[in-house]
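Memo to structure team: turn this sequence into structure tokens by end of day. - J.P.
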Amino acid sequence: MNIDLLDLFCRFPVIYTTTSWWTACTGNSAAFGSTNPLWIARFASTIGTLPAGWSFATFWQFADSGTNPRDQDQFNGDMAGLQRIAKG
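Reply from structure team:
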């Protein structure tokens, strides 16, 4: 399926997950870590352990509310990197 999405959109999809869900539901598969950006959800003061295959998270959702009434997220990169992900 990952290759089908690449064919359709000319980019690999971002995977949004928690480490516990990924471990329980995929057996902690490392299959996507080298191709797909990771958006990890962990409501804590640190990002914690990542799923197998990823050495860093592209995005980190650290809260579901805060100063603004929506998710609180951090991008691990600069504006040019964010634009590359958005544009493909």
